[in-house]
Fold this sequence. Notes:
Helix content is 19%, strand content 31%. The chain is α+β, with helices and mostly antiparallel strands. The chain is globular. FE2/S2 (inorganic) cluster binds at residues 59, 61-62, 64, 87, 89-90, 92.
Amino acid sequence: xxTTQEYGLGAFTYPRGWFMVAESxxxxxxxxxxxxxxxxxxxxxxxxxxKVVLLDAYCPHMGTHLARNTTSYVAQDGPVExxxxxxxxxxxxxxxxxxxNHIPYSSGxxxxxxxxxxxxxxxxxxxxxxxxxxxxxxxxYELPEIPEWNDPAWVVGSYDDLGTVNVHPQEIIDNITDVAxxxxxxxxRTKFFENEFRGHTVTQRMGGGHRTLIxxxxxxxxxxxxxxGPSLLLTRMSGLYDSWIxxxxxxxxxxxxxxxxxxxxKSATNAQANDQDRAAARMYQDAALAAFAQDFEVxxxxxxxxxxLYVQGDGPFLKQRAWYKQFYNPRAQRDEFxxxxxxxxxxxxxxxAPQTKAA
Length: 359
Ligand code: FES
Ligand SMILES: [Fe+2]
């Protein structure tokens, strides 16, 4: 496994930012044990408020995992009470703030240390996101909106769960600046390409053909893909259909990522999407997934790229890797990273995006 340290990314093993931890629909009052950032969590939906709760997994009493249990009677009877969760071993109960609020067999005071960490979570874009920051700070950027999310002409897909891959997120992020892979991997005859770095975002504007997504002689595929922080990629795509692609990847441990993929597809003809539109959207999502799988197969089998042998015509990989470092270093250094990379970069041999030139 290739580690953050081997990539020379910075002081922290795991980046700062918002990270997807589950598809919303999968989070219920049956707690799930999940592992991210090299640690175990208990994830559940409170019965009282309907809000999602993410707690450190291990009970301070004797170290039991709060969510990886099915056979105890606590688990069988339902460990979530109101918005609290009971430990399966001796039934201590923890609130959504992580504090123990009931010990069924003890009349003494609840010790202040009887608590687990409760994490900042948001439900957005049909997913649950956690704010992760090794310095313990509050979020310094917001999760992005998709304006068409509630538009009835658009079909919102469900998340394709690609599971755990032994790939450091750096290799996935490299894709945003990788102009030269489009033709060999996706069969896209790229017409224009540029990257724009702005603070916590990096955008790729690309136009060309695409053998996986568009048949020969079809319309040009135009994509604008933006990383909002280190793990959430939203791509607006026009071509056969207007669509949004959502790709999210979260470190499971150092050098291992968990990946999700989803699509929003606009009905080609209707203001209110119908069953036919939903079927077409699912087919288009499968085609987009096949395109993503083309990248995936490369990542799965490649050796780590700590220091590439870049040539003229490659995208601005070094700028992108400098951009990505902002999330692995103290927040106090954030503005310096922005100053050193903010701007628009064209790969040699490709035109810039027409929409930027027009602006
Ligand atoms: S280990 Fe959790 S209540 Fe005892
Ligand atoms: Fe790709």
